[in-house]
Design brief:
The protein is α/β, with parallel strands linked by helices and about 180 residues long. It contains four helices and five strands. About 20% of the residues lie in helices and about 10% in strands. The longest helix is centred in the middle third of the chain and has 13 residues.
C-alpha cells in the first residue's frame, strides 16, 4: 500500500504541526507550523476510502512504542475515530493508547466530527474512539470566524462533544 494521504486530513494536521518556511520565504506573514523542528513519521492505517481496522491502528501504535527511541517518537497524533461500542477499559485502540502513554509517548486524538445532527441539533456523547480514552489528549474543532482575534472563537458545532458515551468522561480536553 502507498503512504499517500488520500483524504488530506493527515497532511493538514502535519502541516499545522511541523510546516517549515521554504527558503525562509514567509507566506502571509506565517513562516512555520507550531513545531517547525519536529520530525514526522507517517503511519498510514486507513485505506483510500478512509476506512480501516482496529487491528491496523493498534499495530501501528505498538510499532511506534517499540521503535520510539530509534525513531525519536515523543508524540503520537491519531487523527481518526470510530464509534465507541465499549468502555475505554476494553476498547483495543484505547488499550494501545494506554500502552503508548505508559511507555512515555504523549497521545493526541481527535474528538470526531459528530457534534450535531443534519438538522443542526447538538449531539452529546459523540466523542469517537480513541478520543474516549482518559490517556489521550482529545482535541475538538474550533471555529475562528475567519479572524485572528480569539475573542470570537467558538467550539465548532460539528465537533464531537462529551461526556463520553459509555464511561461518561469529560471530553474533549481542548479545542
Amino acid at each position: 500500500a502507498n503512504a499517500d494521504d488520500d483524504h488530506g486530513h493527515g497532511t493538514h494536521v502535519a502541516g499545522t504541526i511541523a510546516a517549515r518556511a521554504f527558503n525562509n520565504i514567509k507566506v502571509d506573514g506565517t513562516d512555520s507550523g507550531m513545531a517547525p523542528a519536529a520530525h514526522l513519521v507517517n503511519f498510514k492505517v486507513l485505506d483510500s476510502n478512509g476506512l480501516g481496522k482496529a487491528a491496523d491502528v493498534t499495530e501501528a501504535i505498538d510499532f511506534a512504542i517499540t521503535f520510539r527511541k530509534q525513531l525519536g517518537i515523543r508524540v503520537l497524533n491519531l487523527s481518526l475515530g470510530a464509534a465507541p461500542t465499549q468502555s475505554y477499559k476494553d476498547d483495543p485502540i484505547c488499550l494501545a493508547v494506554e500502552r503508548a502513554v505508559k511507555a512515555g509517548i504523549v497521545v493526541v486524538a481527535s474528538a470526531g466530527n459528530y457534534g450535531q445532527t443534519p438538522e443542526g441539533q447538538p449531539v452529546y456523547g459523540s466523542v469517537t474512539s480513541p478520543g474516549i480514552s482518559p490517556y489521550a489528549i482529545t482535541v475538538g474543532a474550533l471555529r475562528t470566524q475567519g479572524t485572528a482575534d480569539p475573542s470570537d472563537d467558538e467550539v465548532a458545532p460539528w465537533s464531537s462533544k462529551g461526556p463520553t458515551a459509555v464511561d461518561h468522561l469529560v471530553k474533549p480536553d481542548l479545542v
